[in-house]
Structures
1.
Amino acid sequence: MKIFILNTHPIQYFAPLYKKMAAQGLDLEVWYCSDESLRGEKDQEFGVEVKWDIPLLEGYAYRFFPNYARRGGINGGFSGLLNWGVLRQIWQAPRGLAVVTGWGYLIQWLFVWVAKLRGHQVALRCDAPLSQEIIIRRKAAGLRRFSLKFFLFKWIDHFLYVGQQNKQLYQFYGVADKRLIFSPFSVDNERFSREAQALALVKKRLKQALGLPLGGQVILYVGKYTPIKRPLDLLAAYQQLGLADTALVMVGEGELRPQMEQFIHRHQLLAQVYLTGFVNQSAIAQYYALADVLVMCSERETWGLSTNEAMNFGVPVILSDQVGCAADLVPPELAPDHIFPVGDVAGLAQRLAKCLQNPAQPSWPKQVIAQYSYDEVIAGFQQIVGRESSENKQDLRQKQ
């Protein structure tokens, strides 16, 4: 069975997955609605030009389709991607598995409908969590939920859930368990594990190269400097800690940089807080290798894949309760010390202090993250392909 995957644009986390799927014998073709991530377009939230420096089109079959939207692009809203060729191609394609990776664009809804009418099996894989679905404005919530339940989800055969919050969202809409398949949100664990091993012995040299204190600990933040990510909460919690020998490294860029710089100057933290600016994929590993703890304090975060990356380095994480991966990547028995209510600066500071007082690297990050791998994703696709092949053979025998 051939797999057709519709993506909005090439994504640095998905490209290695598609390459591995192809290498393991899955017959797939990825269809893209935009090439913005290849052209080095300005990221509206980073505020700088972003062009990923790892291969995004290597090792798998792909196609780009022209976008005919008047105000096109991935930042153009619901009608920002209108790739009519996608619909023509899925109608003409031999029956297989049509996979859509979200529902934020009209083209994704049309793709589902056309694929289903043509006789394809249809699968949905995205990272939407229930925690964010239930806080939608009441006026909009009714129409949204009616549309998703009756105009999208009823057309889908397989729901590839990436984690517990995502699974609960589908169950909230009445999706039967037999239609749910675990397909964890993952990063390239093999790559990050290799880099963790290679960098483990050169931590001091890396600190010297980045201008960090050699003897102290490092709190790491990886994300955009935007209100939703709440980086000022982490700065405030760090200031409350008052640990002169502990550095705070904030990897990212965005609109809140001026406010962050003002906070740093006002509290005389110039020698302890490092705002790195945008760091590309080829260089991000050295920051994880230096970290003693990763903090993600977002008020809305569908998943938070930098958590996966850090845990490959054995780095413990402290997450707000609105980070989508918290229920999956933090074991329940550790949740009181590693998950805090979003916006609770004092609670964040308390958890940081406790984590830093016990600097020995725990074993749980690497043990947990091993279950959130590309291999698990591939197993989910193989389950669908195998199931469909068996049913087709059974139908053929009955006809004979």
Note: The chain has a mean pLDDT of 91.
2.
Amino acid sequence: MSTYYGRQQEQSEFHGVMAKKTSSLVTCQGRRRIGKSRFIRECAKGADVFLEFSGLPPRPGLTKHEQLAVFAEQLAKQTRAPLLKLESWPSAFQLLSSQLPDKGTVVILLDEISWMGIGEPDFAGHIKNAWDELFSRRAKTVVVLCGSVTSWIEENILNNTGFVGRCSWQFHLQPLSLTECAQFWGRAGSRISTTEKLRFLAATGGIPRYLEELNVKETAEQNIARLCFHPSGMLFNEFDSIFHDIFNRKASTYRQIVHALVDGAKGVDEISRRIGRERGGSLSLALSDLESSGFVKKDVPPSVSGGTSKTIRPGQRHLRYRLSDNYLRFYLKYVEPNRAQISKSRFKSTALEQLDQWDTIMGLQFENLVLENLDAVLKALKLPRHLVLSAGPYHQNRTQRRTGCQIDLLIQTKRCIYLCELKFKGQIAPRVIKEVDQKVAALKVPKTKSVRTVLIYDGNLAPIIEEEHVFDFLIPSHELFAN
């Protein structure tokens, strides 16, 4: 029985590439642990030949010749090629090409492509030449360039004039949806509450590698304690591994940026002040890298007083950057501050449910989880995606003429604004009605637009909330898991 979950649309697209009679150059990007290599392997099961190569992780003193030696070993293990000492990448690609069969579908995965090119400044050029002179001339050949350092692929492949017209497809894998995540509980899923699933996903998000560590016999808190609050836990050490392996020498700056975003979204000016680095080239590049790597989202606040988000140009100071990755948010806010104690195993006998603010922690993480599953919210609202002009958190500053307000999720269409309140509590009290009424009153909306109120929740509602029909839409959390 297959244990591969989700990605049906992407798999269908990849199979379409494989079905072509001509050759295809493909890129696959995504956050570390998102399952890029596994995705390619799963898709390549229908190929006649699948060959996989991966570069060595960065470390001081790593050379081109060491990368070539590993490539030669991997090639010898997967083909009949002799184990040779390779002196250059052109000779390496020539040897690989000589091992391909005359007929049949071949998929070649060059994984962690930026690592593979360490020590070779012309590596992208060698790939281009190998594609032009070798692989593109063989029918039914798919070469996949894959990596976690998405900025390298964008700079050296997608935005490189030498590759114009050569890439047939670009896959950018996102975290799994809540529906896809639920499959990791297997048969036990029907016995486990939506609330418990959400509590676990609040710490991991839809990252497949983290979900593989789930033990369905343990509670959400037991799983989180084992993975995050134990010295040998995978997610206790994951943060350092991510930033060292992906960002290497830039890791310190990138750490400062994500730390600056832990307590909420911020504009470039505020990030600049927080980390003591001038706005401009290097800071913009770092934010772009974090965004393309899947850790940060760039939000353009909607203009609810008239016009749409399209009236705000991306280069303006209205842009706000948000730490969108659930694991990073959880680690930085709740694990790292206790790192010294965790290293001494002082959390070993502590039940996480008894920690101060634990329910508040789960509530904040739930909000981020919902934001990353916007399609599920739109489906529950029966709102087609193409009608949405903007969607995201909304912050209205207080002025002399208007009251300030903070809206968890504001969805805007041409004629309507959906004001969404997110709640994750055991008991949801009637005061949520007043809270939302105050936000509606504070929001300055054109007379041509209607406001719809939405409560997205996990927990037991106070009877008056349902009986009085005070919200236009009530979306219980289990609906977000619906197919």
Note: Residues 307-316 have pLDDT under 50 and may be disordered.
3.
Amino acid sequence: MKHKIAILSDVHGNVQALEAVLAAAQAEKATEYWFLGDLLMPGPGTNRLFELLNQVHLTAFLRGNWDNFVAEISQKGPDFVDLSNTQDVYVTNLVQYVWRDLRPEYFRQLMAAPISTTLTRNGLTIALSHNLPQINYGHQLLPYQQQDQFDELLTQAQKKAGKAVDLAIYGHVHHQLLRTSSQDQLVINPGAIGQPYSGWQPLFQEHRAQFALLNIDDLGFAGVDFRRVAYDVDLELANARQAELPYFELYRKVCLTGFSSTHDPVALNACNQETPYVARARAYLQDIAVKRERQGRPDQDQPFSENN
């Protein structure tokens, strides 16, 4: 049996980019879809993102580190957030935005998702993870990291699977990538749908959504096609503005230039000076603490566990 698998990752709330990628994958007659995590934030998409993915033949759905924030902040509140940290203030405001209308069934879907899994297709064992199989955050697998980091990806995947792994596919780093382990197992990254990035400017003149098509035929691995798809950036930004997305100007910047401000305390602090984001975050965290105290448990209906 032949498989043409659309590998998707790092939507980061960008509805228009996801719609464009799914349309392109359907035009290529993808037989199934694997999602590697980071569906939400900092873009405006919430329920619509789940609707889009659940309408296709989605056979793998992982949880990324940004997806974790939705549970960690909304459940742990002030126990998790440091309001002196500009990034914490940023993410807390985005989590509050997500919770304005996120449906409970989609929260449960997100939290039930593992951070890694192993699948078999035509005799090939394929490990999927957002970052490493044991942790869905960190910088271990940036494209320029040493070979031993990618060997560790396979080592962890094989330990978790209990058998040898032929391909390891991960997301998180927002770069399309094809390389091998020291033993010639394949390592693939499909790139980012919502926030593709490159530090080399001649290769970063456009910011189309990225994904990959993995082809497997009766003989096994038949190649991987890296794709880039244009989407309606103006409509995405118009929808973000209409939805009153927190830190809209920073989202506009990443959509138009590709440069994220997530780790830029100067840019985040400037936004916090112009808009009372710190006060909003504090009020939201206090509300969470009050609800927890009143109910004696998190106000959401499913506990979060890093070990899922």
Note: The first strand starts at residue 3 and ends at 8.
